[in-house]
Amino acid sequence: MDLQAIIDGIVSELEPRRGEGKVADYIPELAKVDPNQLGIAITTVNGKTYTSGDAETGFSIQSISKVFMLTLALGKIGEGIWRRVGREPSGSAFNSIVQLEHEHGIPRNPFINAGAIVVTDIVLAGHKPREAIGEFVHFMRFLADDNSIHIDEKVARSEQETGFRNYALGNFMRGFRNIKHPVDHVLGVYFHQCSLSMSCAQLSRAGIYLANRGTNPLTGFSVVSPRRSRRINALMLTCGHYDGSGDFAFHVGLPGKSGVGGGILAIAPGKASIAVWSPGLNEIGNSLLGAEALEMLATRTGWSVFGP
Amino acid sequence: MDLQAIIDGIVSELEPRRGEGKVADYIPELAKVDPNQLGIAITTVNGKTYTSGDAETGFSIQSISKVFMLTLALGKIGEGIWRRVGREPSGSAFNSIVQLEHEHGIPRNPFINAGAIVVTDIVLAGHKPREAIGEFVHFMRFLADDNSIHIDEKVARSEQETGFRNYALGNFMRGFRNIKHPVDHVLGVYFHQCSLSMSCAQLSRAGIYLANRGTNPLTGFSVVSPRRSRRINALMLTCGHYDGSGDFAFHVGLPGKSGVGGGILAIAPGKASIAVWSPGLNEIGNSLLGAEALEMLATRTGWSVFGP
Amino acid sequence: MDLQAIIDGIVSELEPRRGEGKVADYIPELAKVDPNQLGIAITTVNGKTYTSGDAETGFSIQSISKVFMLTLALGKIGEGIWRRVGREPSGSAFNSIVQLEHEHGIPRNPFINAGAIVVTDIVLAGHKPREAIGEFVHFMRFLADDNSIHIDEKVARSEQETGFRNYALGNFMRGFRNIKHPVDHVLGVYFHQCSLSMSCAQLSRAGIYLANRGTNPLTGFSVVSPRRSRRINALMLTCGHYDGSGDFAFHVGLPGKSGVGGGILAIAPGKASIAVWSPGLNEIGNSLLGAEALEMLATRTGWSVFGP
Amino acid sequence: MDLQAIIDGIVSELEPRRGEGKVADYIPELAKVDPNQLGIAITTVNGKTYTSGDAETGFSIQSISKVFMLTLALGKIGEGIWRRVGREPSGSAFNSIVQLEHEHGIPRNPFINAGAIVVTDIVLAGHKPREAIGEFVHFMRFLADDNSIHIDEKVARSEQETGFRNYALGNFMRGFRNIKHPVDHVLGVYFHQCSLSMSCAQLSRAGIYLANRGTNPLTGFSVVSPRRSRRINALMLTCGHYDGSGDFAFHVGLPGKSGVGGGILAIAPGKASIAVWSPGLNEIGNSLLGAEALEMLATRTGWSVFGP
After folding, report:
1. Closest Cα of chain D to C105: distance in Å?
2. Phi, psi at residue A96, to the nearest 5°?
3. I want to staple B164 with a disulfide (CB 3.0 to 4.6 A). Which of B198, C8, C171, D61 is the partner?
4. pLDDT tens string C80-136
5. Are C70 and C191 in a shared domain?
């Protein structure tokens, strides 16, 4: 299978549609991104990376960071995390607070905002906010084997100034004692991890451990156990795209996590880690062309977990 | 891999736990079932069937029938079905009506009761209820290649007399014009298809087309296209266990559909169709030992779609 | 105070606005009513009735019947009724089912559809549906001292054929065992009581007991105790206009109950019973001109219970 | 009617029940209050004040302040306030956030926490927090004609440190742009106005304008117009006791506003302003003995707005 030809074909077929979708505008800094960009990168379990389009341009990974923060938190407190956050699809928007009231401050899963805020609270334990942010950046550099990865401070500040809904979620859960640290500290870390800037190439390398039984084939380091790797993939499949997770599974058939910056990380277990990026979003808030590119890729490679 | 040894081992390890869980009692006829039963059957894409425990005893497949009714309905009107039913996990109980009010009578997916009632309405089109029931039984006999499969009329009557919630769902959607036939007709068919009696062995054979790109390897007949087969699997994974779908994906990692009769059908794409049965349910309404047996099986075979 | 001059003035001021609002169309038979009608009738505790406009024309009282059915049910089982229906405003539409699911089949109050269906189930106890309907008609003739009052069978049939939402509510509550009789029987009675045809003049006489400490000054009969009369008024004020009850209290300041036929019954405790009718509804489903006429009347008479 | 004898009788009959109910404990400072207290004060439109029991002891008026803040806000921007807050009962708890999400950040009424936070935001306009607090204290001293009224800073601080849910509400509405000032400022004012300390005697005098067509008979000052006075009373009746408003209207039949400090202010339009206080709360969060005392009072005086 000629992966390079496949992704070049996809990028070329989507060429006329560059710019489709709506760039996220609720975070002012993100609204400034040029919408006409499209990149794909695939890193295989053999350690090779294939790229096409704007695959080397950095973008704000936003919610994709939730996968890596979950990995960090699981490393810290293990399966105890599930006492504070659920594992079920939410059936509602990424920033809904309704479910939290009905379920006593326990978010449905770690990939909606409320859940990721709890995960951040766990990662923060015993640290100052600045240290926790540093640990996360360090972890991402380690995963991608690339020390140039960094946080975009402008984006972080922009989020911090406008993220009222996230402050609401944090305070609401604090009221239920499911946030242990001062809400300002937790959200300081939360907004920074969302603001990590990475390219498709870097992202596909950072996620490869999930396709390779928990071990990074590039560095040989074991990040998580095979079982934990499977479980993170399962969560990505059922909960990775907010209230569009069912649809993504239906069309693409791969565990994935999207971010409002227009990136999507998808995992083909046993085969490859795939990162796509295009800033225009569909109505649920996932990259429009990114999702289409992944559907084309899954069809052409036969990598869907639901059968060739 | 010695599948026979694996399933014998599982049945034997679960031996001391037979009877755990709570048999469904809201349908009086189901409450009479002996709880101490446990069966497993695996049919592989090579056409071989392996059984262990009470794998030849018939039980009420209940909601597992929703997978086959969906297959029938897709065969009738194709992807047009998605104008009347969604593809997202519901985030609520199997018989919740709240979501229907918020989303104007469009059920979230075909595997919750409301969705399956819409699917039944589609299958009913142009038929008398008796004919539609006949067509479904015929379809199941064809899939399992077994003419002894039949409906348990006592269970059907028991459901019909106590299924007030389902009458509520049907009338509610009729009010939104998402049910086209008289509610009594639709529910007559609905209660009958739920009341099909099958053994694990029969069920694993009936489901094998979903593991084999849509084609039954036993008979050679193509039931659905490979793409449709993948999509049904995707729906089973994200929505097959009501509000426990995320948990099932997390622990088992296979597309599956459970029924309150204690049965679960699971699909290992490209490998096998698996049916387990044990009447005691967990608190979400899925077979307690059935789910455990499948978790053990997935671990020992490495069949999880999320990686070995 | 010259009541005749006041209501003549109101009818004449509203003359140019006749026909405003939207006639209920979800019950086909109601949609046929001429929208250009407007009537007012006041019956005082002294036993005098004043009328203006189309006050002698019969119309479908619809949900206004809920006040009288509640009176009947309280007469049968007393305060025990509150074990099966609440006394709080619903915060949602007249036919919402969401609250019922959250509160285990106990409707919020007797003036939303679900609550009135429970009340009907109580009135039905020990009777055949036909007898219960007969008892209600008899009661209304007794209250208004007018034997010409009757049910419009065409409207009743029209509701019966299209009232899917009410069948949903009935079945839903039957599932919670809060409906004791067959749903078909209960709704048969329910649709008939809604279909009572009365004029403003008749209605204002029928309601006068609520303004007069429970006793009809025209006939001298005690219908309910003073305390029960106060309590029914309280329920009309807090719950009589579905999710527009707060607004009605804010603008009019009188206990009232509206119906989708365009009628409103309002009570000025210690002073008078008022019936208005105009078929065009506002967006919440209350008579548009009827509510305006009552606001004008309350202002000009100083009858608001919240002060002159 | 001998009001002094009536209230002395009530206090004496409730003597053996002092201490019933549960003192609010979610605000640490309030939990310290001696539960065995009970006071009643009535100020009539003739300007006389009657007291019984602990009617001169100061207590934290808490949510009762919402009535006075609403009066202030209406004075500032008039009926424009209703673009930012509704007038309907909420059908849910005092601090629910669910409704806010469903209705785009517009609280249902000014007497639930979210609504009062919006009202506070309106009162804050053009001021520093300290000035707004000063204006409110000044207003309350003016209404009660008593310069000793003051804020309990310990309570204010206690609320500020534990009021996570209110911070959540404030941030949530800020996200919908229905809060204009920094959330910290708005809540600073909000927590201080809740922490006003007043006795029953002071409170009954402060509320007398609502019983007297908007004018304080003690000072002769017009506080609001008669129409506005009626409307505030209407809101108190339909929304004054959170999700227990219907029940309060049913049993007491007077506009009222309760606070978790155990106080209730009730208005008998055209007759009197009544303040009761007893710290033990019922399950909805209203003073248990306070509500009983008011029901006894309404029965014995015949002051229910729903008839004698």
Report:
1. 16
2. -70, 145
3. C171
4. 999 999 999 987 776 778 888 888 899 999 999 999 999 999 999 989 999 999 999
5. yes
| Mean pLDDT per 10-residue section of chain B, whose length is 308 residues | 97 97 87 95 97 98 98 96 94 77 91 96 96 97 97 93 92 96 97 97 98 95 97 97 93 97 98 98 93 97 95
- CB spacing of B165 vs C183 below 8 angstroms: no
CATH code for the domain in which residue B272 is found = 3.40.710.10
Rounded to the nearest 10 degrees, what angle do helices B113-124 and B183-194 cross at?
110
Q: What are the chain B neighbours of C174 within 8 Å (beta carbons)?
A: 164
| First vs last C-alpha separation in chain B | 14
Give the 3-state secondary structure of residue D159: helix
Task: Flag whether D167 is marked binding.
Answer: no
DSSP state of A54: S
Which residue carries 């429009």 as its tokens?
Answer: A288
**Domains held by chain C: number:** 2
C158 and C67 share one domain: yes
* Residue C305, SS3 per DSSP: coil
* Diameter of chain D measured on Cα atoms: 54
**Token pair belonging to B293:** 């047996």
* Residues of B annotated catalytic, as ranges: 63, 66, 190, 242, 260
Range of the domain at A68: 63-194
Query: Which residues, other chains included, contact D36 with Cβ-Cβ below 8 Å and sequence gap of 6+?
Result: D18, D19
CA distance A90 to chain B (A): 5
> Residue C165's closest chain B neighbor by CA?
B172
Q: How far apart are CA B17 and CA B275, in angstroms?
A: 19
User: Which token pair is B6?
Assistant: 């694996």
Residues of C taking part in catalysis:
63, 66, 190, 242, 260
Q: What ipTM does this complex have?
A: 0.95
Query: How big is the CA angle at D234 (ends D276 and C44), to the nearest 5 degrees?
Result: 110
Burial class (CB in 10 A: 0-12, 13-18, 19+), C120: buried
Please list every residue in chain B whose beta carbon sits closer than 8 Å to the beta carbon of residue A238: 89, 237-238, 245-246, 249-250
Give the minimum alpha-carbon distance from D234 to chain C in angstroms, rounded to a whole number.
5
Q: Let me know whether D35 and D73 are in one domain.
A: no
Q: Hey, of C230, C296, C300, which one would you mutate to test binding to chain D, going by the most D CBs within 10 A of its CB?
A: C230
